[in-house]
Amino acid sequence: MLDGWQEIEADQIKRMQGALWHLLGNAIAYLSLFVIELVLATIGHSQSLHADAFNNFAGIVSSGLLSLGIWGGIHNHQSHQSKVTALDGWEAERRNRLMRFRLQDLFTLMSGVIMLVMAVQVIVSGVSNLFKSHTVQAVSGVTVWGAAIASIVMLVVWYFNRRGGQQLDNSTLLAAAKDSLSDALTSIGTLISLSGVLLFKFAWLDSVASIVIGFFIFAAGLQIFRDSGLQLINYSDPQVEKNYINTIQQIDGVNQVNAIDVQYSGSLVALSLVIAVSPRMTVAASFQLSERIEQVMRNQYGIIDTKVMFMPQT
Which helix (H) or strand (E) holds 229? Predict the structure, then answer.
């Protein structure tokens, strides 16, 4: 059993290391865009480009937190190489190994909170400037270049995050992909609004665009907060649990699934089951059945560990 866990951990650590390099690249891209957009927004007097710059600043913080969460999971793995002994107990060791990867979810949750705070700040600033738009200086054409550069860069970042997240099967990187897609859309919206301001001379459009961008940031942050929060409390979709139960009950020897508990840890999913079997089933047969259940759940759903408890069918 330990050898199996070592293989799982080694594979997960390798995937996390790949995701870490992606996130460090994200941070560099966000930092570059933040500086470029902030300078051009100041020169060109654009509220929407200023809001987009701070959206990218939130991306810097988010990428940093997600990287820290992944680094923590890797570091804890490397510093915890103890062997399972009779005193440790398999269940205690199992929980310790799973908890190691929950740092990803915790830091993802924190990045969602920071995005929400940033969004509120951007919205408030946009509303404030909307009501004093007559005192705001005219937007310069140089700001369009900043928004165009940000749009292109963020689309590239989104593509590589999504592809990397799918290849590595890493929930943190997939969350970063959602964030970068939202950032790309806000940059495109900024580009469109600035073009409208310059073409039609609607000064208020710049402030309205910054407010819309703020709501985009808020929606993305809320989604990330919700998803990571549900994973931290081990919330499982009832339909997913129903699919698990249906699959297990089709395995020969299982009379009924009496209880199921799904545990999430980063990209890993583990199950604890209580199943009813024939009271005449031997210990050897029950062991073979538990191994068969674990193999089926791993092959069909990618579940890394399934713990089975047996009770006689009454």
Answer: helix 203-232
